[in-house]
Amino acid sequence: MPIPAVVRAEWTKARTTPDLPLAMALTVVATLTVAALVKATTADTPDPVRVGLLGLQLGQAIIAVAAVQLVAGEYGTGLIRSSLLAVPRRWPVLAAKALILTAATTATAVVSVAGCVLLDGRPGFPVRPAVGSVVYLGLVALLALGAAATLRSATASAGVVLGLLFLVPSMLRWLPDPDWADFVYRAGPATAGTRIQSTVDVDTPWRGLAVTAAWAVGALLLGALTLQRRDHG
Amino acid sequence: MIRAEFTKFRSVRGWVLGLATAVALFVGMGWLTAAGSFTSCDDQACPSPPVGPEGQAVEDHFGFAHRTLTGDGSLTARVRDFSGIITYPPPNHDEIVDGLVPWAKAGLIVKSDINPGSPYAAIMLTADHGVRFQHNYVHDAAGPVDARWLRISRSGADVTAYASADGRNWTTVGTMSGWSGPVRIGFAIASPPDITAKGNPMGGSIVQARFTQASAVFDQITSTAGGAWRYDEVGADGLRTDWEKLHRAPGMTTGSDTLTLTGSGDIAPATDMRVAPYLAGALPALLAILVVAVLFITSEFRRGLIRTTLLASPHRARMLAAKAAVIGGVTFAAALIAVVVARPLVSHVFRANGNFAAPTGLLTDLRLSLGTAALLAATAVCAYALGALLRRGLLAIVLAVALTVVPYLLATASVLPVAAGEWLLRLTPAAGFAVQQAFPAYEQVFHPYTPADGYFPLAPAAGLAVTCLWAAGLLTLATVRLNRADI
């Protein structure tokens, strides 16, 4: 099957099952709900931009799980066998899924971030945190996709991805050694990537996003490798 | 029925493995945290802070002018002047200003000896909090706001403190009993550091402490204890700031009928203390437990086993309750095993690396251990109930994480404003993490008591109750749905 046909097939799959559209809607709703709650309870904070984008912390979980489901769902139902039968080269399936997921996530992220900016209501919301957050969300989705292609079980992949996103940052306060904490902070996909939202810690924020990108690329490569090498009976 | 469900649980390899993973994560993460912590003071063992009579690590550093009191007696004085300096306060941090920090204190004290950490009772005038009666580091009671006259008297085993605005009409502020033998009676001055705290994006607060010094002039002194006033700087560390070297040294000067004391420090519970981090692994373990708890019910729906289960025991509510009891009980037991293994191991590694682990006391220890196990069990029941309600594993896991791990993370990572974070820890199932607070928030010490620093808005029992209420509520919803729906 030529690549455009693979993309179209994956597009049809994504659009006709409720999971991805539902997740996109949920992400926007969850992000804006948190943003509104934060707005209502917050008076004064040192980093209002970051706090304004806080809803994405919850939104990223939903996007990540939708990405996991996009791949692992096929293993759950056995659909993967038909998919691979149609595309014996295998990797285009993952590439097409990544493409569609990126498009869907970007659209979701743009709407969510725009909503956060509107809710924030301050004139002159800085561009870097807003654009960076959209890119960050796309990278998180790709990381989750790669993890699911590697682990193939929805539950295990969701556990690993949510662990990376949420456990790593929450373990930081238990690391009393500042060098350790600093390393984990700069190397974790969520902690490094969300530095792009900060207007206080402005030291090399794009490098932080590059770390998240490295995680995503690594996961995708591992996923592609698993797809090519492993048996999918 | 519980036995049947337990058999189901232990015969599925993945679930038992998942629970074992949770135990391993709990112990491993605690060990890793302890192994990564080092404390050293110029390549020697660091001095441990003193431990107070009630078992807590305490701060005991103040200027003390004292006489020995062998029997009954009393000391009365007026605080004529109370002033001080704060070095380099915000916003510009560029000058030394006159002023007192809110909990700077000057007053009268009875102390068993001059060793740091020994029992005491004191009536002190503070800069912003009126007259206070404090004893044994953790107890603090408010007295009159406008009083400048202070009296402390000992009668048998009791030490009683009084305050007065005019030196004629006295109010009793507090009594501490249990005294015996000779004691030191005299004047005390203390001035804690000026503290500012800001959130650290990596969690916790970055606390800045700046040197302060207070001076008090006492007059109208009446003392039944005889002899000269002797001065000691209790808990002195031998270090002197430039201010103390060049401008005003701490110490005592006596006039014809006045006594002036100058000093720094605090007589209070220590607040920047760390417990050995054996509970650090609770959160990673929780994630593994959430997955197992959700799968425990959703895989029954997925594989159709639920039909057989309900055929064998048609009372649906009872079936759900039995499964809840099994998942809660199994989690509690596994968590307890994890705590029992992690506590000695992690504490040993932590201390071996030169760290000081603040003493907690047996009751607090029991509460931390059993509370954490109960928290994990209650959260497991929440996740299980979500699974029963939604019947879809992935969705239930996401919701369980969103309800427990995410609020805890948002509240403790110093991202969220403190007030919003505290509301999350009151309303969501993450409220139960309050059982992990080792020390109470002491009002008489200025310190950032935020969730990021390990201080929760609810009391331990109340927090755990919130989590249990969530579990009960979700379980009820799941029962309603199961009773109504077709399988």
Automatic annotation (TrEMBL), chain A:
<feature type="transmembrane region" description="Helical">
    <location>
        <begin position="98"/>
        <end position="121"/>
    </location>
</feature>
<feature type="transmembrane region" description="Helical">
    <location>
        <begin position="133"/>
        <end position="151"/>
    </location>
</feature>
<protein>
    <submittedName>
        <fullName>ABC transporter permease</fullName>
    </submittedName>
</protein>
<keyword id="KW-1133">Transmembrane helix</keyword>
<keyword id="KW-0472">Membrane</keyword>
<feature type="transmembrane region" description="Helical">
    <location>
        <begin position="58"/>
        <end position="77"/>
    </location>
</feature>
<keyword id="KW-0812">Transmembrane</keyword>
<feature type="transmembrane region" description="Helical">
    <location>
        <begin position="158"/>
        <end position="175"/>
    </location>
</feature>
<feature type="transmembrane region" description="Helical">
    <location>
        <begin position="20"/>
        <end position="38"/>
    </location>
</feature>
<feature type="transmembrane region" description="Helical">
    <location>
        <begin position="208"/>
        <end position="227"/>
    </location>
</feature>
TrEMBL record, chain B:
<feature type="transmembrane region" description="Helical">
    <location>
        <begin position="278"/>
        <end position="299"/>
    </location>
</feature>
<protein>
    <submittedName>
        <fullName>DUF1349 domain-containing protein</fullName>
    </submittedName>
</protein>
<keyword id="KW-0812">Transmembrane</keyword>
<keyword id="KW-0472">Membrane</keyword>
<feature type="transmembrane region" description="Helical">
    <location>
        <begin position="394"/>
        <end position="419"/>
    </location>
</feature>
<feature type="transmembrane region" description="Helical">
    <location>
        <begin position="366"/>
        <end position="387"/>
    </location>
</feature>
<keyword id="KW-1133">Transmembrane helix</keyword>
<feature type="transmembrane region" description="Helical">
    <location>
        <begin position="320"/>
        <end position="346"/>
    </location>
</feature>
<feature type="transmembrane region" description="Helical">
    <location>
        <begin position="458"/>
        <end position="480"/>
    </location>
</feature>
